[in-house]
Amino acid sequence: MSAEANDKKRFIRIRGANENNLKNLSVDIPRDQFVVLTGLSGSGKSSLAFDTIYAEGQRRYMESLSSYARQFLGQMEKPDVESIEGLPPAISIDQKSTNRNPRSTVGTVTEIYDYFRLLYARVGIPHCPKCGREIRKQTVDQMVDQIMTLPERQKIQLLAPVVRGRKGTHVKLLDQARRSGYVRVQIDGNLYELSEEIKLDKNIKHNIEIVVDRLIVKPGIEKRLSDSIETVLDLADGLLVVDTMDGKLLNFSQSFSCPDCGISIDEIEPRSFSFNNPFGACPQCLGLGYKMEFDIDLMIPDKKRSINEGAIAVLGWQSCTTQGSFSRAILDALAREYEFSLDTPFCEYPKKVQDILIHGTGGHSVKVYYKGQRGEGVYDVAFPGLIRNVEQRYRETGSDAMKQEYESFMRITPCKTCKGQRLKKESLAVTVADKNIYEVTNLSIEKLKAFLADMQLSEQQQLIGRQILKEIRARVSFLSDVGLDYLSLGRATGTLSGGEAQRIRLATQIGSGLVGVAYILDEPSIGLHQRDNDRLLGSLMKLRDLGNSLIVVEHDEDTMRAADCIVDIGPGAGEHGGQLVAMGTAEDLMKNEDSITGAYLSGKLKIPVPSERRKPTGFLTVKGAAENNLKNIDVKIPLGIMTCITGVSGSGKSSLINEILYKRLARDLNRARVIPGKHKDILGTDQLDKVINIDQSPIGRTPRSNPATYTGVFDQIRDLFAATADAKAKGYKKGRFSFNVKGGRCEACSGDGIIKIEMHFLPDVYVPCEVCKGKRYNRETLEVKYKDKNIYDVLNMTVEEALTFFENVPSIKRKIQTLYDVGLSYIRLGQPSTELSGGEAQRIKLATELSKRSTGKTIYILDEPTTGLHFADVHKLVDFDKCLNDDGVIHYVAFEPGQWRWIRYANSGLFDLNKKIKDYSEEELELFLYSPQIRLKNPPEGWPKTAKYEGLVHRMYRSVLNSEEGKLHRELLDPITSHGVCPECNGARLNQKVLSCKIDGKNIADVIKLPLSELRAWIDQIEDPLAKDIQDTLHTKLSALIDIGLGYLSLDRGLSTLSGGEIQRCKIAKCLNSSLSDLLYILDEPSAGLHNHDIERMRRALEKLRDGGNTVVLVEHHRKMIEMADHIVEMGPEPGMAGGRVLFEGSYKELLKSDTPTGEEMRLTTSLKAKAREAKGIWRMEHIHLHNLKDITIEFPIGNLVVIAGVAGSGKSSLMESFYRSMGEDVVFVSQRAAGASLRSTPATYLGVADEIRKIFAKRCGQKASLFSFNGAGKCPACKGKGVIVSDMAFMDDIETTCDVCKGLRYSKEVLQYEVDGKNIAEVMDLTVAQAGEFFRGTKISEALEPLEKVGLSYLHLNQALSTLSGGELQRMKFASYLGSKDRIFILDEPTNGLHIKNVRSLLKLLNQMVDEGNSIFVIEHNIEFIKSADYVVELGPEGGDAGGRLLFAGTPSEMKMSEKSVTAEYL
């Protein structure tokens, strides 16, 4: 490996980073280390970590995907950086808030809940949700007995639920049902006749039940009922639905039913435990666990008021205080009827009166006297109560705004059906270790770890659940390790802090076990108590020790001291930052005089502790705080000073301050409609007039929001500009200076300053607006200036610059001063809010509050304001809090006649069925052939309700030609269809509008027909600035294809016309285009299908991949590929069970000296065949033009071993295809495709010896031969003859467990009682080929197995699944079946693919033996040993594609070596 490649492994080398405020920053960040990026807030740390390193890593990953995929994933712009080398795959773990969707929980985001769902579905014990009894499987007899208990003469339908909640058109299934003789089907609750055309929306989930039988319950139907049930169970995999025709459905399952209660439950699946899936979610709350309900405490917030004083605050009832309103008339009627006064405080009403007002009169009507605009009258009104009345208004309103207003009077209450547990009662009745899934996921992580450690499971449960539990335990431990053991898996992610969310993502990444990744973290210590910080650092070290690089943006002192390297960015913030100040360990920074961080670490600078503390001016007392984990505590909070609420993570700080204190004060002081957390009371609120919560939520979500607009200073600045003489002269008001409204803004870019050009799957290009040059305003507006600066210039100023500029405007200066004082001197006034960090947004909010006039009675609540702050920023923030402290308190916290398709036309009523088609009028012919789908206006009797009529041609295209059915009936379709070039587009496939668009006289169809080498040159000569990025991308991608030897191809070439070698090289070229590094590429025989001429190109391509900082692992047999390897591992010594050992590890030179099979073969050389066999005849072919073949005339010798050689794509397969067509049925083509892929395909079944063995057993034992088949009558009923039970583990690998009934022998107990010569059928089938040959010596079986021994497969077992054989073993087994053939012609396509050099010699020996027996063998091959050993060689070339297809040579190998035209000659 080169020194440069090695250097890429050691450092992430960044050169010329200029993103945001970075100033041409160049730095070498060590890899596989814990690196901290620090510096003042706004100094450029995040610009370097996220906007440069992570953004480039993501961009490279996106570019490695297909252009189709990139359309949907969005694009990332290339960061402003000259180069980044040695960049591994990057994963960002930032502080962005987790999913606020109420369905998202800690368990779902960490995927632990998915594993729990799988665990409960596979090893859970179901219980009856009614009586709690453990549920057992239901038999057919039990089902019959239960159905017979229905009332006599009850009509029932037996339904087979074949599709349950699956998307698709299900055409094949419905067609199969129709052909099976079924008449009706129920789809999504609607009954259809199967004779009609049923068209389903493929994008909607459907439920389909086949109607198997319709019965009337009466004595004597038991036998028919039983047979029908068995049919249903077979159709629907053990499920049965009985429709009692009165709207009730009875569910039965062969799986689970309660014999006492008669309750049957569905088959348990992972989705049964998902509260996000209708199959598992509680039907009442739809899996949310709660419902939004009107709360009387919000509808009547102050019960000390009377109704006349406005006690009822809910929407629609505020008018009740006004005489003459209908709501008042109702209340007056209620007051007269139930004798209460509307002037009495609501709290003093008797409970009966309160219940009537809240819940209604229970249907009793009262006389309501009402006089309105249309007259007056007395109405009988049954008052439903405030809650039901408002619920009806809420349901009926169509206004989103009104709904939102109503929702402010609602509160979340636990679902009464599931009690907040979110799942169906059937799902909650499944237990593992005596706990249901809800109980387990609501344990704290700490308790969950203990539960998992002590879990007692049966042996079968342990066998199936072992891998799942291993994953769960590991992931739970990782959550604990990052200090989150107080959380539960059921905790909603919307309630997590940014720090908790980040640590959850961190734990998930530790659990993934990835290696060689760059993790970029944004202040992971946020919100962590010092005690938990050590655990977090331990987790980070664990990630590093796995072999990852950690880049952490951090200000925490402990984290810096634990780092392997610190990169200090600065020296200041914003415009004053973006430079590398210092780099090294904590000790190195302390010695650097330029590093402010070093000064704080060394103690030279520190945040001073006040020598004198302020005295409280009063107290707030919280009584009986009991929200979440608070234990009914009383807390006294002093007023008039700065109070800090601290404690370990999860101790209850946010519950106390955010849930109780803030919400109570917001309700009482700010009149907010919120429900405070559980507490008894708060005393001392009379000392305050308002509460302000300054959190870290963004100040705006669009680029149009900025610090100037948020703080309100932009209004004052616009006022100032409107007051200038120029503005007054032109009649401009302040609105003229807004870029959000028409008037002053540039209309070309709508005030954005930039124009977005969409580039489809490439990143969108943003160019400055040509009209305003990025200044957002029109020319006239920008002519208005204040102190020689226009409005754009002012917005572009930093806070620091603006402070000086507006020093003589006190109102503006005061607001800007507060921004400066909270450490935001570096931000620009017009900086988009989307570019601000959470900490910066919080400080802008703080500055906005500081700039307001103080009342001295305000309480301020801040949730961790030091987030994202460097030591020096904390210093500024706390210093400036002094004036704030004087005013309040700060807190940190799928036609023939009679067939169904024919019936559609015959029964349509549109045609005379006795009239010839040729006699059809023009209109009739058009209708019959070309009509689109139409609904018949007057459908004849019997025409299905939902069916549509469609012309025959359209119908054939839609239902047959363009469907799977067409592929199945190709032989029937070929005589009635023709293929040719489309006359409309002339084969271009595009419409004329598209084809009219040209570049340099060529449309896109012309361009993609060019050979790739010509295409690259054409693209390079295009001159257009907008095309630059696309040109560069295309040049790179085309060059990779050309460099790997595919320059002769064109982009319109169909994949089906490419050779295997060409396809593989296309894939490798795609990898070469990727700029990703640190990847592991695993290639399975990349030399397959490649000529030695192409091997050199392949070598260069693979070396390029390696030198890009990647690891390349090849499974390979080719001499040249082995020779080029840096490191070689040889497995062996034999195939099959005699292999599986490492024989050698080392270099190529060391391999040549070894005594391993490969080492010995590499030292051997094959000489050219001295004398070729005499040909038995000649087969002449003239003027061959198939595919790329160019007028070839050739004579093939018969009775020889003939090799067809040539580079990939030269036309070898095309030549053999022509030969095959000319010879007809006399040729046997032995392909490379797999012989069998299922568990039931074995060497015995493939060679036909299984039938012979069964016949011997049948004759000796006096039974039918079918009894001795595990695919027929003799199979084990439990495992269906597979020997194993396969447990579907959803997203995990399926688990195969040995069948408990047959113990893996695959046969039923009855079959295993019969023996031949002391062995039963299972024991015989388990014999190896060699053992079976001996056991059946002198029989047909022994003769059939002999070829397998000749090809070296004597070690295979007769019952070994073919799916377990390697490609080489499968190929030799195919050859074996042809051994003994005489006077046949065989074509073999690259038979050496996947064969070791030693096996190639064995194969040559076999083929020569077959030729000696009178056969002719034609081999398409690149293997030099094969070419040297051939009787005759035909070579095509000289290149692939259009550059190939010529006959270069035909003759013996010795003659070939002397040929000057031959490309292969130099390798002989």
- Biggest sheet: strands side by side, in what order? 5-20-21-3-22-23
First-last Cα distance = 31 Å
Coarse morphology: globular
Total number of helical segments?
A: 57
Gyration radius, to the nearest Å?
A: 41 Å
Mean pLDDT across all amino acids:
82
Number of strands: 46
Output the structural class.
alpha/beta
Please give the largest β-sheet: 6 strands, mixed
Measured by DSSP, the beta-strand proportion falls in 15-25%
User: Helicity range of the residues?
Assistant: 25-40%
Uncertain stretches: 869-894, 1234-1239
Could you give a quick summary of the protein structure above?
The protein is an alpha/beta fold and 1468 residues long.
Compile the SSE list and pairings.
Blueprint: H1 3-10, E1 11-17, E2 25-30, E3 34-38, H2 45-63, H3 67-73, E4 81-85, E5 90-93, H4 106-109, H5 112-123, E6 125-126, H6 140-147, E7 155-167, H7 171-179, E8 184-187, E9 190-193, E10 205-216, H8 222-235, E11 239-243, E12 249-253, E13 256-257, E14 264-265, E15 290-294, H9 296-299, H10 326-338, H11 351-359, E16 365-372, E17 375-382, H12 386-396, H13 400-407, E18 410-414, H14 425-428, E19 430-431, H15 437-441, H16 445-454, H17 459-481, H18 498-512, E20 518-522, H19 530-545, E21 549-553, H20 557-562, E22 565-570, E23 579-584, H21 586-591, H22 596-602, E24 618-625, E25 633-639, H23 653-669, E26 681-683, E27 690-694, H24 707-711, H25 713-722, H26 725-730, E28 754-757, E29 765-768, H27 779-782, H28 791-795, H29 799-805, H30 810-821, H31 838-850, E30 858-862, H32 871-887, H33 900-906, H34 922-930, H35 952-961, H36 964-968, H37 970-973, H38 992-995, H39 1004-1007, H40 1012-1020, H41 1028-1046, H42 1060-1073, E31 1080-1084, H43 1092-1107, E32 1111-1115, H44 1119-1124, E33 1128-1132, E34 1141-1146, H45 1148-1153, H46 1157-1163, ...
Parallel strand pairs: 3-21, 3-22, 5-20, 20-21, 27-30, 31-32, 37-44, 37-45, 38-43, 43-44
Antiparallel strand pairs: 1-2, 1-4, 6-19, 7-10, 7-11, 8-9, 8-10, 11-12, 13-14, 15-18, 16-17, 22-23, 24-25, 24-26, 28-29, 33-34, 35-36, 39-40, 41-42, 45-46
Helix pairs in contact: 5-17, 6-8, 16-17, 17-18, 18-19, 29-30, 30-31, 40-41, 41-42, 42-43, 52-53, 53-54
